[in-house]
Specification:
single chain, alpha/beta, L-arginine/glycine Amidinotransferase, Chain A, three-stranded mixed β-sheet, 9 helices, 15 strands, 25% helix, globular, disordered N terminus
């Protein structure tokens, strides 16, 4: 599979400029300064292009999954026609009827991590071997399943884990949160069982947030893992909270850091990996 560190062109939805002009201007300035190419996708219905755009398997090989997530049930005005976007931008693809968001695929080389939301989205039992085998053939990778974060209606892996290299995984440190011990144990066990060395990363979610509506999306404040990576540079979300400094110091041990103010974007439940899509 394509490494995240081989990114050559970053794409965003054209809606980002309209909805978050300050964030967009900041991103454009920093991308220009890093000499990173970027473009905008038209015919999109929301800014979260990571989810509806295809997954690149090789230089000219893309797999486009069925973008029909349960969290958009009854909100067709927000569901992008991903075939139309690809055709508009000249992207050839192999289509799969499997329901899968790109934000639920964290991959490097021959490994891909997904949460177990993949099973409920496709209305099959947990661990269904037929679904897993099909995914591994399409992604040309070993699929590693981890538990979905508690009370997360989106169910994506990209706010939970990221590869540092083929043997090392960055994982949110849930030990200082209200997450159930059983969830933590199952998550860390799933990764360790697949011979991945775990590095715990700073994680400071807003645990005071509460909504009576179970379909509301929690803010992504404090979820630093959802960064945009280009080579050894990461565009790291910042939230104007005291923990920002600690997190910058931590990630500086592994990457070159570009800080991006994301406090407004975070209120909508996603961050920099969510709003970006890259191809080589």
């Amino acid at each position: 599979m394509i490494l995240n560190s081989q990114n050559l062109n970053i794409y965003f939805s054209s809606l980002l400029k309209q909805q978050f002009p300050n964030l967009t201007a900041n991103l454009e300035q920093e991308l220009h300064s890093q000499k990173i190419a970027f473009s905008y996708l038209t015919d999109t219905k929301d800014i979260w292009c990571r989810d509806y755009m295809p997954i690149q398997i090789d230089k000219d090989e893309f797999v486009l999954f069925n973008y029909f997530p349960s969290y958009l049930k009854g909100a067709s005005q927000l569901r992008t026609d991903n075939k139309k976007v690809c055709e508009k931008h000249g992207i050839n693809y192999t289509f799969s009827s499997i329901i899968l968001d790109g934000g639920n695929v964290v991959r490097l080389n021959d490994k891909a991590i997904l949460t177990d939301r993949i099973f409920t989205e496709n209305k099959t039992k947990i661990g269904d071997s037929t679904l897993l085998n099909n995914l591994e053939k399409l992604l040309k990778a070993e699929v590693i399943i981890v538990p979905t974060e508690e009370e997360d209606i989106i169910g994506h892996a990209d706010g939970m884990v990221r590869f540092l290299d083929n043997k090392t995984i960055l994982v949110n440190d849930y030990s200082k949160t209200n997450s159930k011990k059983s969830f933590q144990k199952n998550l860390y066990s799933a990764l360790a069982t697949n011979n991945l060395e775990i590095i715990f990363t700073p994680y400071f979610p807003d645990e005071n947030w509460y909504s009576k509506n179970k379909y509301d999306i929690a803010p992504a404040t404090g979820v630093y893992m959802n960064f945009l990576q280009v080579g050894n540079t990461i565009f790291l979300p910042q939230f104007s909270i005291p923990q920002d400094n600690v997190t910058v110091s931590f990630f500086s041990n592994y990457f070159k850091i570009v800080k991006i103010d994301c406090k407004e974007l975070a209120k909508h439940g996603g961050l920099l990996n969510c709003i970006s899509w890259e191809i080589t």
